[in-house]
Amino acid sequence: IHEKLITSYHSFSDMPKVLVQANDTMKRSQEDSTDNTEYIISKIKAHTGKKLTKREIECLKLWLQGFSIKHTARMLGNLSCRTIQTFRENIK
């Protein structure tokens, strides 16, 4: 079910909603409190063959928590919003 939740979504126009729903679904289905970000990262790599950078992973974690681009930019050391947009595009 987890694989279908992410891989069957083709539009990507509402990626934040998809990522949050995937994260929520995984949290409900797991007994322990492991970091679901690792699961999502492994699925991205499996389906694209690409590895996310450290900054992209940090951005993904904040994205899953629902932070805006502007807030994420501030939290990651006052980066530009365009940089965060690029990270998110790479994640998509």
Quick overview:
This protein is mainly alpha-helical. The protein has helices at residues 2-7, 15-29, 36-48, 54-64, 69-75, 81-91.
Fill in the keyword field for this structure:
92 residues, 6 helices
Globally, the shape reads globular
Distance between the termini: 19 Å
Radius of gyration: 13 Å
Helix content: 55-70%
Percentage of residues in DSSP E strands = under 5%
Average pLDDT, all residues: 77
Count of helices? Answer: 6
- Helix/strand structural class: mainly alpha
The topology string of helices and strands comes to HHHHHH
User: Would you count the extended β strands for me?
Assistant: 0
Model regions low in confidence, pLDDT < 50 over at least 5 residues: 4-10
Major sheet: size, sense and barrel closure?
none
Question: What does it look like?
Answer:
The protein has 92 residues and is mostly helical. Helix content is 68%, strand content 0%. The protein contains six helices and no strands. The protein has helices spanning 2-7, 15-29, 36-48, 54-64, 69-75, 81-91. The protein is globular. Mean pLDDT is 77; it is low at 4-10.
